[in-house]
Amino acid sequence: MNPSVPKFAVVVQPSPIDGMGVFAAEPIPAYKKIGELRGESISVREARRRAKRQQRIMIVEVSDKRAIDASQSQDAMRYTNHSCSPNTVLRIRQGRVEFYALRPIAPGEELTANYGETHHEGTLPCRCGAPNCQGRI
């Protein structure tokens, strides 16, 4: 299997949360790996420089020295939007950014992750719509 292809079928389409989103195209069982975020490996310094120039960020720091910039990637998982009540968890393993289902995910459901602290430093309104929404990212 090509490692850049998600393990479960997903589709990218307009999201009610923000811009484009990635949606389950088949049932995804709880706790299963869905896929990985692929992109350019860059230094954290370069990642933070790039993040300051962009409104929509597709960069994840994988260590105190390295980051993955997926902004030019063709990987569908780069469209995983933030939610304060996510259905996936992002795990960093051996420099890889992996997404796992937190619960069963139904076809048509948008895949979301809680990205925690971001370069927006709480200045960007959160649009996740979750009952427990923190209001800012």
UniProtKB/TrEMBL annotation:
Judging by the UniProt lineage, the source's domain of life is Bacteria
Q: What is this protein called?
A: SET domain-containing protein-lysine N-methyltransferase
Q: Which UniProt keywords apply?
A: Chromosome, Methyltransferase, S-adenosyl-L-methionine, Transferase
The organism named in the record is Caldimonas aquatica
Q: Which Pfam families does the entry link to?
A: SET
Keyword NADP listed: no
Where does this polypeptide localize? Chromosome
Chief subcellular location equals cytoplasm
Q: Where is the SET domain?
A: 6-116
**First and last residue of the signal peptide:** none
